[in-house]
Amino acid sequence: MISPRVEINLDKIWHNARTLVQRLAVHGISVTAVTKATLGSYEIAGTLLEAGVDTLGDSRIENIETMRHAGVPASMTLIRSPMLSQASRVVKHTDVSFNTELQVISKLSDCAQKAKRTHGVVLMVELGDLREGIMPDDLENAVRETLRLPGILLKGIGTNLACRSGVSPDARNMAELSAIADSIEAEFGLRLEIVSGGNSANLPWAISGADTGRINDLRLGESILLGREPLHRQPIDGLHTDAITLIAEVIESKVKPSQPWGKIAQTAFGVNSPARKQGQISQTILAIGRQDTDQSGLGPPLDIEILGASSDHLIVDSGVNRLSVGDEMTFQLNYSALIRVMTSPFVAKVLYRNARPVKH
Ligand SMILES: *Cc1c(COP(=O)(O)O)cnc(C)c1O
How far does the centroid of ligand 1 lie from the alpha carbon of residue 130, in Å? Predict the structure, then answer.
């Protein structure tokens, strides 16, 4: 079979999405499924919609365009602030975008008027993680300016935590977002349809039984695809953590010394940490490398240890197992490894439904 490849089990993705949709519905929270790791796959998008998610969110307009052209029947949200240079594509292909800059919203307004469309805007609020967001003190002004712009509909507010600085969503910062929603509504006499509390890192908070206040939407990517919450990378109860796996092929298998010899300088990727073992090992090379994935995010099979990687080679110690050229090895993926394999043109994507490969 073609190699390297990711095997994507659509039934497991459906199960994960369905389970999260149902668990959050109890708390009045709907799910925006984040597709940025799936390169706009029509089948994965369809699976997410069948599982009951309301909206699809992606950080890349290209992925949204791919899904639109394939006829994915969903409301689409651009979850990264639009580039000025992409404003007209954003207006044309998305229903809503997340925004933090008035200059951008103003350009979206121009484009919306030209296209005779209405574009929805969610204003992102900075609550401490220091990635995107308007500082809370500046939000009132941003709302006022946004409301003035023709062709723009203020749909709500949102925040994003845990991604850059690892700030955990908790009762305090989520209550702050709720309070901000209430005060904007009171000040401007309007209703915010969306209060988007965050990403998969919000799940422990959301299902802890804490008061979820005004939060009525979460944007979930990693938890659906990998079955884990990103704060401590623990498996989420009842979800599959192996919906997506990576298979790579052995191209060299030899017994070699564990320690290199010669005068040691930098490698192609900086300074190497010294080999730990002494003596001879079963060294196996797989035909996958840093061009395809993040080797530090691969979970090898039991008794296999990853020793290093270059652009095109993954070197493992296969322990007591002697592998043969042509053998395949299956890896679990963390989020970093996942986004790289999914976006590498060198890694085939093989989708399965009902245990059968899906033609696409
Ligand atoms: C990627 C992303 C998400 C999804 O995050 P997960 O941890 O994969 O659930 C949500 N919101 C924004 C703004 C994102 O960029």
Answer: 15
